[in-house]
Every structure is written in structure tokens, then in C-alpha cells.
Amino acid sequence: MPQNEAPGRDPALELWVVLARAFDAVSRHARAQVTHHGLADAEFGILEVLYHKGPLAVCEAQRRILLQSGSTAYVVDKLEQKKLVKRTPNPKDKRGTLLVLTSKGRGLMTRIFPEHAETIRRAMSGLSPAELKRAAELVRKLGLTAAATALDGIPG
Amino acid sequence: MPQNEAPGRDPALELWVVLARAFDAVSRHARAQVTHHGLADAEFGILEVLYHKGPLAVCEAQRRILLQSGSTAYVVDKLEQKKLVKRTPNPKDKRGTLLVLTSKGRGLMTRIFPEHAETIRRAMSGLSPAELKRAAELVRKLGLTAAATALDGIPG
DNA sequence: TTGAGATTTCTCGAATTCGAGCTAGTTTCG
DNA sequence: CGAAACTAGCTCGAATTCGAGAAATCTCAA
Questions:
Q1: How far lies B88's CA from each of A73, B49, B102, in Å?
Q2: Which of A53, A120, B47, B69 has the lowest CB atom count within 10 Å?
Q3: Of A16, A24, A127, the CB nearest to B120
Q4: Is residue A141 within 8 Å of residue B124, measured between CB atoms?
């Protein structure tokens, strides 16, 4: 049967395929580690950004974890129930809410973040430091330009 | 306040962050295009693999779309309801089911796959052909080694 | 041949995510 | 000032995904 242009022929489609696979493979490592501590991926994402950046508006945290606002509200609810973060009014913007790590949340991150970093390092140990660096450059450029390209224009 | 080792310092963590962002950015393009035709991402994934490889066992299709078996059954149900694929018994393995594109399904893919390819190409147009090739090499290597690394070993 | 272990596929409930739409607060600028 | 446009964050229903587990079949070494 005549195979219509195989995706492997097109460099962009090929990269798309390997990108999805790599993301999935590394995700599994990250998820396994994080689940191990009773956290969902997105929960860990929020905690991590607060841990590294300090208190943030919900919308700022949201941008970093790549979820829609409805999902973010759901995740923040969970974290509040677990007493890992607290919502506080944002004095700079009365629309907004500031997310703050509780001491319980900070303690948890202090315990598990190093382990998380080690998990990612191990998952990526197939690339040499130079390869990691080069890959990050290229993939960053890809992400930035893809994000900057208009979503709409369906050709045809 | 003292910022604990910023993720930007660690090449592996850095790549992890940009990888997730790039995947997300390109996904949005793919999703927008595919949604435009009334298909979910995973539905398109199944159709595409059948379109390019011919009839496949459910488990083979599943491996390529990176979903768990429960989710795959759900997606295949949807596609059957839409009369885009058909489940047929697998003569080689009585446990299994073979997925076959209907003519409606093949017609749909013939119409929209070229557009999909163009969408991906456009989303990735920020990289030169040489960069695409190099990125694919590195990211493929990353994905393969990450997939081959044991999931369990939580250090500590 | 046989039986332990692996594979394939599905079901089902729970968890997560999306997406649209709403309210309230903010910004822009004539 | 004041209207229009935008932003922040939420709710809610629908869609999707996961994860565990069951049933059928297959594999392969003893």
C-alpha cells in the first residue's frame, strides 16, 4: 500500500514526534518521583515556583505551570486543603490573590526538591553536559518562536 | 531571601523546563488545528498512525500515542462512534483487536493531514533545517535514554 | 504437556483538565 | 471624569486521562 509521505521525511514532523516522546519519557520519571510524595504534577509545579520565587500572584504561577485558569484554581484548592500553600489578598492589585508557601509547604519542598532534581538529572544522563546545553539552546529557541507564532492561520 | 539553587543553574533542570515549554507551545498549534476539524489530539493520533502504517493492533497504536490502555479504549470508542475506524478481530492473536481506518476515516485524513503537517512546520519555522535536524538528534537521544532508565530508583 | 508469568484489551470510578462564562478591579485614553 | 477594553481569579459542566483490576490468550521453560 502506498505510504503517503512518512513523517520521518519531514524534519519538522520528525522533531515533533521525538519531542513528544522525550517529554513523555522524562515526565514519567518526574511524575513517579512526585507521586511518591503524594503530590500531583501540577501541585508540585506550583510548590516549586513558590519555593524558588517566593510569594506570587495566582496568574504568575499559572503561567509557569502551563495550565488554564480553571485547572489552576482546582490545583490551588488542593494545595490549600493540604495546608501547603495559603491564599492571601494582594495589596498591589485587589483583583488578585497572592500565593504563599506555608511552613509545612516549605519544609516539604526542602525535603523533596533535591531528590526531584536528582531524578531529572538521572533521566537526562544520556546526554553529555555539552549536549544538554546545546539541546536546551535549540529547544528554547523552538519554544519561544512557536509561542510567538500566531495560533490561528490554518493554511489552505 | 536566599534563593535555593535556581533551576537555571542545572543544565538538566534547565532542559526540562524548556522542553516542557516547547512541547506545550507546539501542542497548542497542533491542538488548534486538529480541534478545528472536530478531533481531539488523541483521536488524531490514532487516525494518523493508522493512516501511515495501515491496520494495527490496539496496543501498537497505543504505544505511539502515549496514553494508558484505559484512555486508549475511550478514544477508540469515540472514533468508532464517529465511524472513522473499525475494530476487527486479530487473526494472529485472539486476545487482540485490529484497528482499521474506514473509508470515511481515510478520506478525512487525506484532507487534513497535509494541513496538519503545514501547521507543525510553521510552528517550528523558528529553527533552520540544520537546527531542526540537530535538535531532533539530541532530543531523540534524550527520549531513548530516558525511556531506558529505570523509573523506580528514588535516590536517598 | 503444563503451569507460571506476561500481554492484550476492556471496565469502572476517581482525579484532572479544559473551556466558556461571570464578577470585580484596573488601565487606557478621549 | 468615564466608557471601553483588558486582566485576575473563580465556578461549573463536560471531556479526557489515569490507575487498578479482571478476563482471555499467549509464551516458554521445565
A1: 43, 17, 11
A2: B69
A3: A16
A4: no
